[in-house]
Amino acid sequence: MALFVDGPISSIEELAAQDSQLLDVASTEGIDVTQKMALAQEELGLELETLVPRLLKAVVATPALKLWHTFRALEMVYTDAYNSQLNDRYAGKQKQFAALARWAQDRVMVHGVGIAADPIGRAATPAVTATPGNLTDGTYYVTMAWVNREGEEGASAVPAAETIALSTLVVMPGSAPANATGWNVYAGSAPDGMTRQNATPIAVGQSWVQPAPMGTAGPGPGMGQEPSYLKAVARVLQRG
Hints:
Elements: H1 12-18, H2 22-29, H3 33-51, H4 63-85, H5 88-111, E1 113-115, E2 127-135, E3 138-147, E4 160-164, E5 167-172, E6 182-188, E7 195-196, E8 208-209, E9 229-231
Helix pairs in contact: 2-4, 3-4, 4-5
């Protein structure tokens, strides 16, 4: 699971899975769904700062937290839609998602906030270039993830793509988090076909030169850390 601070913890596709009319409504009413997701994330961040002071950077995006964000963002979309048109259908949707957001928030309260003991952030997209080698010609997709001292991976980077001919790939990570002890590289000929290429974590500051043939038996990129523990939080009054 990604960390809360890694970026938006739910996607437009996940919002649309909860409300099949979302994209049509957003287009018709001129609503920026990405902006609403960002505002919902900011709001949840402020609430989490109150619930788990000084631990926001260690909060893991558990399924309950993702649902809270999803429903809060949908509530914001339909609040805007209703305020624009005063359409009762939008008012019904706004109330529905407000209730679901309160329900999801309550699930977080009941089960606790997921905390990573040694949080390792999402990696930035690595720099990928070609160098002389004998990897099969074609386009390759490459991602990476930082590893902490416990061997836990952070969330994988947005993949880079590189087309090569009569060469191979050199992968260079960006700046490492202070607690990173190494990194893993994943590559493949399709975005959904990347597998880990290194047997043991690569040292911080070291690049990776892809050997041929490309490995296909390793695990795929992960989504990030599981919580080390669930931190109990005090129950609070729900929003109106």
